[in-house]
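dude i think i finally got it to work??
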Amino acid sequence: MTGGRYHGSPRLLATFLVILCASAVFIRLFGLATLLPWNTAWMIFGDPGQHYLGWAFYRGEDWHWPPGRIETMGLPLGTSIGLTDAIPLLALLFKPLNAWLPGNFQYFGLWMLVCYVLNGYFGLRLVARLTDHGLLQALGAAFFVLSPPLMLRGYGHEALMAHWLLLAAIETCLGDWRWRRWLLLNALAALIHPYLLVMVFGILVAHATAVIRANEEQPFKMLGQIIGFIAVDLSLLWFAGYFVGSGSLAAEGYGFFSMNILAFFDPLLRWSRFLKPMPVGTEGQYEGFLYLGAGAILLMALAIGVQLLQPVQPPRRHIPLIVVSIVFWLLALSNVVTLGSIELFVIPLPDQLLELLSIFRASGRFGWIAFYLLNFAILVPILYRLPTRRAVLVLLGALALQLADFWPKYNEFRQFIRSRHQWTTPLASTDWVEYAKQAKRLLLIPPHPPLEGVYLPFAHLAASHGLATNAAHLSRSAPTASAFSLGIADELVSGKRDPRTIYVFHGLDTVRQLPLSLQAEIQPLDGLFILPPMNEKES
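look at this
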């Protein structure tokens, strides 16, 4: 029997199998080319472009205060390594090594591989609390490696692939209080992504509550430690530059980027070979994507049957963790609660509370704690109550079904990643490089298309040559940026020109308003119109 409550460590063989499995899944999905540090073409796409370029600008600048600040990206105010979602932890680590790094250097591919391996490892540590059988440990951990929410983040949210932080926090919560480990997890989360920090901190509060209820720690001592954690978290967020700029941290989209009540069973985005996607309340509910997979759903049905016949009671000390996961699940739903495509009700919120919640507008992500805790809970009756041989066969069958369910999506994803390796800049003329060598700034002059659709090649050129630019698409930006661009256009119309700036016009509307002396210098270049910098003799 596998019954009994085992609280040991992962078996060595199980650890090896999980690392091998996680690496194989990553290579199957992303390919080996993404691991090459000098291969950056696959990053110049959508949101990953913002993340990579945040790092590219950051590495080339001098240090500022706070250390995460970036002054040359997103003129006039600049931005920060935190607000570009460029994984501050790694950016701060690699920036001092800039002189020894290749000109095109990215750490995102290696980071994603590490996330897959650590997701498997901390999933393994959770399963090792249920059984000492090495093969069962590895099979149980495989469900965490195959996590659909983890893979979804591979489309363009590299920092948010650190789901292992949540698994590590859950595993820590199930054991004795270790404040040093909680301090480390909080510090890592603060330097990776704020969403993950909030969830890790929530699990910490659950653990602290359980410890106090069991009279294992004095309440005032625990409160002092938690206040210390908050101080460290806020300091690190400031250090990474999350509070840089004058814009609000709140953003539009709260209630749109939410979770659906049916999220566990909805193979949104054609994720399943066997099940059809369900209607959803909003197109933004991909943020709350929590599909368990056909294998895990079948395993859950079996686990419910086993639980009814031979109940396994959760220890009372785990109740706060369950409560916290439910609270975050409710937060994930947002105030606009939907069941499939049906809007059940809208909870009216005060403006101040709505603005606070809008800081985390993609509330659907908060469902991740419940997703991983549910995956763990499914394994509990299977590993506690079934004989070893039967449990092995059940998990093997469920995993085979899980892989069969996901395989078409894996093939689609692999092709998607491969297509991103083909990026080449549309700024093909060699004149761009010559002008960049003479300039200190590159400015896009309105009217122009929305920046998120056109900024990438210009920001790439600017980052590659150390130019400051307004060509940026930032996760949090202030109205000052638009006013700055309009002000530059007005200066040109009045005849004022910075001789060390490349001015880029997407059409002739503003060009026709320039003084004739400046119009005479306008040059067509790759379908655009530019006012090049003045050479040294002219200036």
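Residues 1-5 have pLDDT under 50 and may be disordered.
im so relieved honestly
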